[in-house]
Amino acid sequence: MVPTKQRQVSAALRTPKASLKQREEPGHQAVPGTRYIGGFLGIKYCPKCHDGVINTDNGICIQCGFEPRKTSHIQEYVDKIIAFSFDCANVICRMEDNDISSEGKKTRDEKWFKVLLEIIYFYIHLTDRFAFGLWDEETRDSVMTDIVEGTIPIVAEQICQEWPEEMVDKIKQECMDNFVNAMKEYGSYQKLSAKKDEDLKDTLFWEFGKNVANLTEEWPNPASIIRIEGIVTISLKELDINSFIEKAR
Ligand SMILES: [Zn+2]
Fold it and tell me: Which residues crowd ion ligand 1, with CB under 5 Å?
C-alpha cells in the first residue's frame, strides 16, 4: 500500500481556473471541463492537438489530421470522468470561496490539482473493478488504455499548458506514476465499504476519502472524510459506470 503523501506532483501550480479560462474561446463557457464536453456544444476538440476541431464527417482533426481511435461511447465516458472530477474537486476544495489571500489561493490550487487527479484515479479504479469478469482481457486492455490516456495526461496538459514543455512532461509522468500507485492501493481493498459496526479501515470508499482529506486538510477528521465520500458518491450515480461497462462489452 502506498500512502497518498508519497505521491508527488511537481512544484506549485499556477491558478488552474484562470489558466483554463484563458483558453476559452467565444461561445465556450468558462467552466472547467466544458471544452471536452463536445456533446453540449456540438463541437469535439482534438484529443491530440487540443486546438483542432474534429470533422464530424470523417472523424479526423482538421488541424493535425489525427483520427481519434476512441469509439464514441468511450470518448463520451472519458468526457464525463473529466467533467465530474472537475465538479467534485471544485466542491471539495471550495473553489467558489474567493475570500482568501493570493498565497492561500495558490496553496488551494495545488491541492485542487491533486484532488482532481485522485478523483480521476478513483473513477478509473472503480470502472476496472466493476468490469471485472464482464470484459474479456482484450476489451479490458484496450478500453482501460483509452480511458487512462484520455484522462490523466490530457487533464495534466490542459491545466499546465502555459508551462515549459519539459515540465509538463514531468508532471504528466508523475501523474501516471501516482496513478499506478493508486491502482495498487485501491486494488488492495477487498471491500467497497463497511457494514454497520464494521471497521472502516481498509475499505475502498473510506480510504479514498481519507486520501483526499489528507490532501486538503492538515488534520482530517471523520466528518471531512464522510463529506468527501458523499460528494463523490453523488457523482457516481451520474457517471453510471455499469451502463458504460455494458456498452463497452
Ligand atoms: Zn488535432
Answer: 46, 48-49, 52, 61, 63-64, 66
